[in-house]
Amino acid sequence: MDMQPQFETIVTQIGRVVLGKEAQIKMALTCLFAGGHLLIEDIPGIGKTTLAKVLSRSMGLKFRRVQFTSDMLPGDILGSSVFDRNTAAFVFHPGPVFTQVLLADEINRATPKTQSALLEAMEEGQVTSDGKTRRLSTPFFVIATQNPLELSGTFPLPESQMDRFLMRIELGYPDREAERRLLGGDRAQRRALSETQQCLAPDDVLALQKQVDGVHVAEAFLNYLQDLIDYTRTAKHFHMGLSPRAGLALMHAARSWAFISGRDYALPEDLQAVLISVVGHRLRSREDLAGIPARRLRTLFQEVPIP
Questions:
Q1: CATH ID of 214-303, from 3.30.565.10, 1.10.8.80, 3.40.50.1110, 3.40.920.10
Q2: pTM for this prediction
Q3: What is the pLDDT of residue 64?
Q4: β-strands 132-135, 126-129: how paired?
Q5: What's the rounded mean pLDDT across residues 175-204?
């Protein structure tokens, strides 16, 4: 079944609220249908929270937002057990992680101990507290934000945590036309958010994620994927190459992009479309371990030929 018209409807609806960011909206949907989690790295006031809200409403998903702070404890996210005098037993009170779309706002302001509380939830879809494991709702989609410019009072995410995010994107400033519409119609934007229509149900999202897993990948696609991975491991300007998990992330994201584009098979061009968002936070330059510019990643397209 061709879902592309429905996806275009969703992108258009979200685009009425998050102006001028069609490419980023499509990447967020790609990440969701690939079953991954999304990291948005940008300055405050760009529309990160709005994107998370309108996306969850369009999908009919339960939404919770957590503002991360340095004094936050793991129990503030996962939940905790409280003694009930009436039953003379401890009763577990679920934390905000028990939702379907969790916005972890300014995740790098929390301590590493609190950041790591999300690791099991993001990787296994479950939470272990007081020796008991509890399953999370499905689908479960984490959208985390962090400010790349603000270093004071922050705790940079370790590589193990960064690797849990399938994609990292930046929203960036709106173009002049979009910002003019925003400045001239603030109330209209709020009304558009409140009037967002539900286009899919949670069960539909799960079904679509299964269809994405069934997108066909040919030998030529896998050869190109492995060539890209091998290049990052041997090229002198990368500190370390991509891991096998990163390779799987690339394949899942490319399958999802192909599916959203209306195909049941993936092409090498799909890898190129998602590569920067998938590997940009996984690779480090030898010259600057803090990150690697997008222009360096684009050289992969020239250096690694399509089979």
A1: 1.10.8.80
A2: 0.91
A3: 94
A4: antiparallel
A5: 81
